[in-house]
Specification:
Length: about 240
């Protein structure tokens, strides 16, 4: 009397884990049916998962859970997670500063290189630069590969955290050896498989740009603001005086 969809993430999971997930869904469905019996339309039958439940289920595993609401501590305990209460949880881990860095156009890499991320109307473009990481001329290929690998890890993480979807172009640093490009492409495909959202690496274009797509499942963390052309105001018509 029911149907199930098992997603890719279920591969290799113990039967007990899958059975527990099915039971959890059935409990929700029974609660919905019970609410529907005496409800007059329009009515909210199920409010969905709370922010706490989404955090625990979607972000697990994590080191610790800190909240500013005592009720969340009790709710987390009911879900089998230990939590502690603090009046200013964001201040403990510098969340505000992390958010500022997350939204930055330029993001530094551990080695001294950096990414420049430009959201456009049709796509998102990411440029990779060596920055402070110069190295010696003899080791330039290894330097470029190291920077590109760091950039790949950070870029795909930022795309996931920022909620970026659609067409994405990444301008990696040019490398001369084919094995270096193959190694970078292999890493990108491995990282794409870890993304809970469908992410496809299409390879390098004839211009050497990495082309990829990521399914749009949510609004991005922030939307770029585009101003009309100062000469034509967006009409495409420029008068002779201008």
């Amino acid at each position: 009397g029911l149907g199930l969809i098992l997603r890719r993430g279920a591969e290799g999971e113990p039967k007990e884990t899958i059975a527990a997930s099915i039971d959890a869904q059935l409990r929700i469905w029974r609660a919905i049916e019970k609410e529907a019996e005496g409800a007059a339309a329009p009515a909210l039958l199920w409010p969905g998962r709370s922010a706490l439940e989404r955090s625990i289920e979607d972000l697990s595993p994590f080191d610790n859970l800190v909240t500013d609401r005592p009720s969340d501590v009790e709710a987390a305990a009911a879900l089998g997670v230990d939590a502690r209460c603090s009046e200013r949880p964001f201040a403990l881990t510098g969340v505000s500063e992390q958010y500022r860095k997350l939204c930055a156009r330029r993001v530094w890499l551990p080695s001294g290189g950096f990414l420049v991320i430009d959201p456009c109307e049709a796509m998102t473009v990411i440029d990779v630069n060596t920055g402070k990481f110069v190295g010696s001329k003899r080791d330039r290929e290894a330097l470029f590969l190291k920077t590109n690998e760091e950039a790949a890890r950070l870029a795909l993480r930022l795309l996931r955290v920022r909620g970026v979807g659609g067409i994405i172009l990444i301008d990696f640093i040019d490398m001369e050896r084919e094995e270096s490009r193959a190694r970078l492409l292999s890493l990108l495909n491995e990282l794409a498989l870890r993304d809970p959202v469908k992410c496809v690496i299409h390879g390098f274009t004839s211009l050497g740009l990495l082309e990829m797509t990521r399914k749009k499942t949510e609004a991005p963390l922030f939307q770029p603001q585009f101003s009309p052309c100062p000469h034509c105001g967006g009409s495409g018509v420029v008068n002779e005086e201008t």
